[in-house]
Amino acid sequence: MLEVETNLRGAPIVPLPRRARTSAGGAWSLDRLPIEEVTVEDVAPEGYRLNVADGRARVEASGPRGFRHARATLAELAAANGGAVAAVAVDDAPVLGRRGIIEGFYGEPWSHEDRLAALRLAGRVKLNSYVYAPKDDPWHRERWREPYPDADLARLVELAHVGAEQGVDVVVAIHPAGSMVFSEDAEHELLAAKARQLLDAGIAGVALLFDDVPMVLNHDADRERFGADAAALGAAHALTARRFLEDVLQPRRPDAELLVVPTDYAGTEASDYRTAFAAGLPDETYVWWTGRDIVVGEISREDIDAAAAVFGDRLLLWDNFPVNDFDRGRAFLGPLVGRTGEIEGSALQGAWSNPMVEFAPGCFGIVAFADWAWNPAGYDPRRAAAAALRLVAGPDAAALAPLVRTLSSWPPGAPMDPELSAAADAALAGAGTDALRTLLEQLRTVADVSTQREPAGSLRPWLAAAGDMAAAGLAALEGLVALDDRAGDISPADIEAALARAEAHDAKVAVDVVPDFVRAVLQRIIERSSRADAAAG
């Protein structure tokens, strides 16, 4: 076990190494730094030792991914330091052996170009898995019995090849649960044929998903064989997983493992389904789970331990962060929060991020997630957010920072922008308007950000909404200042029009802060006008 001990803790690099120490001795341009790579046996899988001194770098690792991760660390150190790498010693390895992205949301799937970019990002931030599971791909779910058409298969194969170049395993998930007759051998043969098509083409692995279907068996034949309750469904799913592993995966590779999602995937307590499902699974199966609920603000060590008591020592986290398929008006651009750092020694064997439907904006969350998954005990959301902004926004980082700040809340039910809310409350309470004015003026500038590059291009609806919402807030703020200064007549019409423009957007930016502030100011204007009319009468 490596201790979390680093004086790089404040540096905006991802993932944060588990042990690193800089020293005096200069800094050297990465593009001219000689790098010696030495294979050793005493380094953990994917781990590496990196030493930079006297104008040279030495890397020790036990395999290709360790060397890749060391090079990624060098690139991050250089990117955070103007292209130069200072003298440093790093002894690093991931806490979680499986770390990845799962394209598992509802809505329009990512484009092929998005997926290629996701693989390159994954390699850069030391993720090692990408799972293809878009709910709206018909060959993933509704048409699971049919082989992938040649063109679609070719794209999946390209993903596998690029993934291999990046040190990322590409896994294709099949979701037969909605219509499969689990008691019929012919159905299992169709499932096997679909998987063999993928494996024969060079896909690294195939997963099985049973999520988001009714908690009952659909077919009479299944009810006759397994029963009619939730436990029967769990037993049928477990048998399917067992047959798939033993008949399809293990004949090709005896040490093959299977990743599965149960139907009852959210929660920590035992249930009839979970008990039957876990009891019927073979040992080489790993189970995805989402936490106490489907989308959660917190996952504690106690949650993991409770889920492990149900599913066993083979738990995987399907983290529905920063997914937004349940509310397409939301964009979650902030860092992962609420995840325990106490992972070592637990039953959690891996974790995947289920990102936003809009790929490029979702990368902010992916980067922060990768930081946590590599080194949970050293994870700092603020540092991860700074690193993600640099890495994802690139030359547009400063311009996009106000929007990223105001869209950084998590979980979805949390206040969208606590800092802006506090400033609005202070202004209404007569405690000063400077803080609110500064935040709103910063937010208004994002409407002018060029959308020629990503992620700004995909953020276009939120950029426009932010500009109008800030303008409405500023219009109301001017009205509030005029009230406090006892200025003459204040017409609410312009403020009302600005608010109408702001609320016409589908994209949601500060919608739980600015409209309430504007309406509070309008109410004060109306009350003042009423008092003036009464006095005049």
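That was protein one. Protein two is written in the same sequence-then-structure order:
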Amino acid sequence: MTLSEQADDALPLTDFINALPEPAPWGNRPLPKIIWLFWHSGLKDAPEVVRRSLTTWQHFNPDHEVRFLDLAEAEAVLGVDLQALFERLTVDLGWAGKSDLIRMMLLAKFGGVWADATTFCLKPLSEWLHDEIFVNGFFCFRWASKLSDRDMISWFLASIPGHTLTVRSLVRSQDFLFKRRDQNLTIMSSANFLRALGIAPGERRGIDALKKCENLKNKTSYFWMFYVFKTVFDNHPKEYAYLENLSNKYAQHTCAINVFRDSYVSKQTYKDVSREIYKTRLELMFDGEGIRADFQESLKNVNWSKIRKTLAISYERKVIFVHIPKCGGTSIDRSDIFEGGIHRHGHPKFLYFKKILGSNISQFRLLTLVRNPWDRLASAFHWASAEAMKHDHEDAVMARDHLTEFEDDLIKFLPEFCKNSQRFIEILWLRPAVSFFDPAQCDIPYFIQKLEEKDNLGPLRQFLGMPDFQLGHERAGTTAPLAKSAFTEEVFRKVGEIYAADVQAFGYQDTTMAQLKY
């Protein structure tokens, strides 16, 4: 579209806006997998932070098309002579303001994600954004501070093509930026703008504030776009109400490192990049020009180098081990499976490994050891009774509060457990095995070794690729097997019902009392 084709009194984006697509229906709004970045002079002459930004978006989103545009490329994609368009502005916008206009045009026409060229992607979009946006089709982060005069954050936006919020904001922006004026509006700082209008901290105004400042000062705010969006949000309460309930994990360029670690996207600046916060982010995220291999792990854990040694993860064999309490797992912890050895803390669940490894979990296989629920309960009772006397951590305190009265006597304990299992089932060592690992919820390859079958290790050795692997389990509990089983037929039946999910998940349906060790 050439602007000269339009009537002199027509607003320059009218034809562009009229040709925009209709939005998909509410509730079925998949987001196009395209990411837009823009730097008017191109990547070659851009600051270092821009090149770093592009690297992060490409690294974490291989399933998306990442489009880095300079001015000429943006003109070709949009089919608009942007140079001619900018000459018709009646507001003296710099490149930051011009890019505001470009992002609205790209998202309104093609949809996808706009990321400022000074942002870092910290989490793959496929792991959070696409599910969140499917219903309403629009996303932006919102200012967390109640003292801010702005609702939205514009350096990361997502929209389906033709979305009402995007299109209406573009229309409102056109009305404001290309309004006939005798003299162009100049830009003033946010602080001066708020002071001139007497806007109190936390007071959020719309386009009316821009109009008032124009009348008073013949100036406008550097953040004009936020006031446009505020008016659009006010006019579409359903859309905004939905938006307010979406994720809001972001980090501004001044945020502390703990906020950065917990964010999905972060903002940097091309100014003053020598500041310590920026240096710390680079050290955490980059190894030379590329993203660190363990970045996602270190991102979520301040002391990752220490935490790494507490997790049963073999990067060489691509194996993780979920240690279900009282199933003989210590022999696995102490084995040669894990390069460098581990010093396990607690009993991390499979879901914790998924959180730690993020999208990299798909590269791994899972190993776990299980035990029939009756012997496991007996062993757990004796262990928990002893552990409660030794330590003051939360799990030990819970065990002491609930088990001391039974004096490490399994025969005394079992009837009370059957009568009121909910009283005991949250004690760490007595929790159902499926609460640590449930095969039905596992989406990676796994191998389950039954402790009762420790004399048949061929399949386990094949799984590990360790033909000489030995599983040396010795009883570590405080009480040896009883001369007579502590399980009566009624107790045996009741315990089977309490741990029915374990029985089913790990194939213990045919277990008999005669097979029990306790």
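The longest helix spans residues 373-390. Keep this in mind for the problem set.
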